[in-house]
Amino acid sequence: MESLPLLTIFCTLFISSLHNLSLAADTITPDLPIKDGQTLISSSQTFELGFFSRGTSKNRYFGIWYKKSPETVVWVANRNSPLTDLFGVITIGNKGNLVLLNETKNVIWSSNVSRIIARPVAQLLDSGNLVLRDNGSSRNTESYRWQSFDHPSDTLLPGMKLGWNLKSGQESYLTSWRSINDPSPGEFTYRLDIHGLPDLFIASGSVKKARTGPWNGVFFGGTPNLHNSVFQPILVHNEDEMYYMYRLVNNSVSTILTLDQSGSVERFVMYDQNSEWTMLYSTPMDVCENYGQCGANAICKARKSTICECLQGFRSATEGDLDIQNLFGSRKCARISTLDCQRDEGFLKLPGIKLPDLLEFRLIESMDLKECEAECSKNCSCSAFGNSNLSGSGSGCLMWFGDLVDIIQLPGRMMGQDIHIRVPVSELASTSNSKRKKRLKIALAASVSTLLGSFISGWNLKAREVFLVRLQMDIYRNTKHFLTVSSNREVGSHTA
User: Fold this and answer.
1) How far is CA 317 from CA 236, 322, 383, in A?
2) Which of 243, 354, 380, 462 could form an SS bridge with 222, CB 3.0 to 4.6 Å?
3) Distance between CA atoms of residues 416 and 355, nearest Å
4) In which region does residue 262 sit, left (phi positive, over 0), alpha (psi from -120 to 50) or beta (all else)?
5) What's the pLDDT tens digit per position in 52-92?
């Protein structure tokens, strides 16, 4: 009978030890630290936490990586304070902070939570987020006292926020590694600009290197058309915060967004059955994505031999070698005639582009596009307008003033937006004439092809080839003469 209490105590201790073992799978407690050589694994076996080195470096860092792709480190704690030996320990200190200790028990890194946590526990979640919470409270996000998702390194994971806490003023952004083997903070950052309509941009120090178009309610302009197949972009704006994030569309596909040491933003995907990442895209993709490549009031066309062209209604205001100017983005385009609201002016639609940067602008969310045109027409310094929101049938009025900077003609795989640029009426007539000429050429070619098909069907192959070559030359000469005469007549009629 006396052995019964001992049996009860033994069972209690055994159950307690099992509980501690289960916690040890993905958690850190004051009694269960992580030493160099040990790791934690999230419950879904997706992420792993521990110490690592890169390349030939002996520096040791505490971080998180994909379990089946250990080279893919997604977060690093002590980027500025590497350990130089194998005696590092990550544990929870007396006041409840997560701390990294060196061999002499000095704190190398800390979560720096000011409020004391009674029953602190740190847990590696299936999302890749390392959270510090009170083990006695509920496990919802409101109970987190600290989380690694609030302190990104060079990688944006699904569910991680890139943006601003508007109450505290804290900004979350990506910072590149210094080199492929050195995770200390590098030269480049990737951030959310919340000045006006938000956009994403890459910066070197305080200098903007590349940017997306503004958020239009559906996507960031000038980004690849991959949405709804791999990930869904989300922009959240309320009184407390404004941030960009993305979520997975298909849970069998993993995707990450990284900022590499050269300043490129890259998106990768990995399928469940694989352990290798495939790059979906990298930006800047070409020279046109370098910020302001062609200077003010110009459009950059990467597929043209001369990549920079002045917008219609503008002409080059810079003398010198245009090829050098195009290469370094120093070209300046000025209006052919000054906008003064005293002469006939209209708006020329430029479709499917990356919208210019919001340097001087005005946003009126309550207006539709027709009202926006009228509002822009009344203001002599309004140089362009467009919809601010493309969701539904489109809404909102976005107006630009002064120079238009960083416009790109986008290839088909990129998502662009329309803008309407203020020009003299003569420019609208010129555009209309060019479109008529193009339609006439197409109509002539189609008609000739149809007639010839029936006329020479009985000829032998060699005779058909000789006849078609001669006919094409005659059509080209005659059409060119006709269009020149037609153009001269139109110009004469306009000037009269």
Assistant:
1) 42, 11, 18
2) 354
3) 8
4) alpha
5) 999 999 999 999 999 999 999 999 999 999 999 999 999 99
Give yes or no for a contact between 209 and 283, defined as CB atoms under 8 angstroms apart: no
Closest CA to 23 of 48, 53, 38, 43: 43
DSSP state string for 435-452? HHHHHHHHHHHHHHHHHH
| 50: containing domain | 21-151
Look at residue 4 and tell me if it is in a domain. no
Residue 396 to residues 369, 404, 418, 468, Cα–Cα distance (Å): 7, 19, 13, 53
Give one DSSP letter per residue of 204-266, joined into a string: ETTEEEEE-PPB-SS-BTTEES-BTTTEEEEEEESSSEEEEEEEES-TTEEEEEEE-TTS-EE
Question: Rounded to 5 degrees, what are φ and ψ at 72?
Answer: -90, 80
In this predicted structure, which of 64-73, 278-287, 433-442, 477-486 has the lowest mean pLDDT? 477-486
Q: Are 379 and 360 in contact (CB under 8 A)?
A: no
User: What is the number of domains present in the chain?
Assistant: 4
CB 80 within 8 A of CB 185: yes
Strand boundaries in 67-114, DSSP class E = 69-76, 89-92, 98-101, 107-110
**Residue 212 structure tokens:** 């997306």
- Burial pattern 431-470, b for ≥16 Cβ within 10 A else e, equals eebeeeeeeeeeeeeeeeeeeeeeeeeeeeeeeeeeeeee
Which pLDDT score is estimated for 478? Answer: 62
**Mean pLDDT, the chain, integer:** 85
Place of tokens 């004391």: 116
Q: Is the dihedral of CA 66, 67, 69, 75 positive or negative?
A: positive
What CATH number corresponds to the domain at position 261?
Answer: 2.90.10
Lowest mean pLDDT across 98-102, 327-331, 337-341: 327-331
Question: How wide is the angle at C-alpha 332 spanned by C-alphas 283 and 292, nearest 5°?
Answer: 15
Residue 303 scores a pLDDT above 90: no
Which pLDDT band holds residue 336 (cuts at 50, 70, 90)?
Answer: confident
**Residue where one domain finishes, among candidates 107, 126, 151:** 151
Q: Do 475 and 448 form a contact (C-beta atoms < 8 A)? A: yes
Residue environment code for 399-428, b if the CB has 16+ CB neighbours within 10 A, otherwise e: bbbebbbbbbbbbeebbbbebbbbbbebbb
Residue tagged 């080195």 (tokens)? 53
- The encoded tokens of residue 296 equal 């003010």
Q: Check whether residue 161 and residue 267 sit in a common domain.
A: yes
* Cα maximum dimension of the chain: 121
Q: What is the pLDDT at residue 390?
A: 92
Q: How confident is the model at residue 326 (pLDDT cuts 50, 70, 90)?
A: very low
- Relative to beta strand 61-66, strand 69-76 is antiparallel
Same domain, yes or no, for 295 and 263? no
Q: What is the H or E stretch that residue 369 is in? A: helix 369-378
Q: Between 95 and 156, name the one with better pLDDT.
A: 156
